[in-house]
Design goal:
393 residues, alpha/beta, Aspartate Aminotransferase, domain 1, Aspartate Aminotransferase, domain 2, globular, binds pyridoxal-5'-phosphate
């Protein structure tokens, strides 16, 4: 039986075209882009072209792109870099309650180093209210970090609305766009952000490479000290093959974006409808329409998400209980708790994320096994029995 991979928010398979453009830089074209002889100049040229492509796809200029080792580094660089560079002006940072751990734990770290963090709540759909952001601003606020779309529940935030206020108040705005770049339109001018994180392996590029968009004139302390690469913003010999692959992956993703997003939205809504109609005691997490094209996130009452995942895995389906970072721990996801879900319901979460290889037949296959699997697990739950009994009386 062939496997059905439905965890594209964790990572995506690399496109063959991407591997193809990377291979020469892993073989014969091994020059260091900082070297001035021919081999080095060839690598530099490839790097420049990749930077141009990436900048064009985001509406940025090439000088505003800093290559990193991925989304986590881009988030760390944006937040720590801004916090330390602007420390003499203030020590206050605003973020949301549903950020990825790369943002959330970076803010927690800064708190230990004397920074003040305000964590804004979200509504039951996971939406941030721009008025709440404005109300939380104080003269010491240097940075606001709010993600473009959430990796667990798929909710897309009103980034453009939030940025309007922050522009007027001259407060730096960072957004983690790791889940949106390559999937829905992302233009740094339209969003009005100063810093934006992205990661190649979330849009069919290689793992271990990403970028931070840094608006011209924004001061950041470096995270990695050393040589003068990336205009003194990030030391270390560049991952040339990875960067070339990332740029190709993004270019291809942008080309097919409108069609592919629409295709995934239809499959997504079909799966959501099937689950809600056929499985009782189920809750949809996230916003019904302001959500990522490929994201389905639900909570089933009276079951353990982990047991459900293992059962689906045995039946050939790879899905997730939420973020890759929380599975394996017994704590329910901070994102689901921030929506106001009680612990016992947050424990029964399932995230199915579709990709460009997902077909209608895959969705049908999920619907063939999911209702029975949920029911089987519920039959073993003492809580489910008690609830059924209570209703019978
Ligand atoms: C995957 C992800 C990250 C981390 O990116 P890596 O490249 O895996 O370090 C950060 N933020 C969000 C929203 C993500 O989905």
């Amino acid at each position: 039986m062939s496997r059905i991979y439905l965890d594209h928010a964790s990572t995506t398979p690399m496109r063959p075209e991407v591997l193809e453009v990377m291979l020469p830089f892993l073989k014969e074209q091994y020059g260091n882009p900082s070297s001035i002889y021919g081999e080095g100049r060839d690598a530099r040229k490839a790097l420049d072209q990749a930077r141009d492509k990436l900048a064009k796809a985001l509406g940025a200029s090439p000088r505003e792109i800093v290559f990193t080792s991925g989304g986590s580094e881009a988030d760390n660089f944006a937040i720590k870099g801004a916090a330390f560079a602007l420390r003499d002006r203030g020590n206050h940072i605003i973020t949301s309650a549903i950020e990825h751990h790369a943002v959330y734990n970076t803010c927690r770290y800064l708190e230990k180093h004397g920074f003040r963090i305000t964590v804004l709540p979200v509504d039951s759909y996971g939406l941030e209210d721009p008025a709440d952001v404005e109300a939380a601003l104080i003269p010491e606020t240097n940075l606001v970090s709010i993600m473009h779309a959430n990796n667990e529940i798929g909710t897309i935030q009103p980034i453009t609305e939030i940025s309007k206020t922050l522009r007027e108040r001259k407060v730096l705005f960072h957004t983690d766009a790791v889940q949106t770049v390559g999937h829905i339109p992302v233009n740094v001018q339209e969003l009005g952000v100063d810093l934006l994180s992205l990661s190649a392996h979330k849009f069919y590029g290689p793992k271990g490479v990403g970028a931070l968009y840094v608006r011209r004139g924004v001061r950041l302390d470096p995270l990695i000290h050393g040589g003068a690469q990336e205009h003194n913003r990030r030391a270390g010999t560049e991952n040339v093959a990875g960067i070339v692959g990332m740029a190709e992956a993004l270019e291809l993703a942008v080309e097919e974006m409108d069609k592919e997003a629409q295709r995934q939205r239809e499959l997504r809504d079909r799966l959501i409808k099937g689950i809600m109609e056929r499985i009782p005691h189920t809750r949809l997490n996230g916003h019904p329409t302001k959500r990522l094209p490929g994201n389905v996130s639900v909570c089933f009452e009276f079951i353990e998400g982990e047991s459900l995942l293992l059962n689906l895995d045995m039946q050939g389906i790879a899905a997730s209980s939420g973020s890759a970072c929380t599975s394996g721990s017994l704590e329910p996801s901070h994102v689901l708790l921030a929506l106001g879900l009680p612990h016992e319901i947050a424990h029964g979460s399932l995230r199915v994320t579709l990709g460009r290889d997902t077909t209608a037949a895959d969705i049908d296959a999920v619907m063939e096994v999911l209702p029975g699997t949920v029911d089987k697990l519920r039959q073993r739950s003492p809580l489910y029995d008690a609830d059924a009994l209570r209703k019978a009386h």
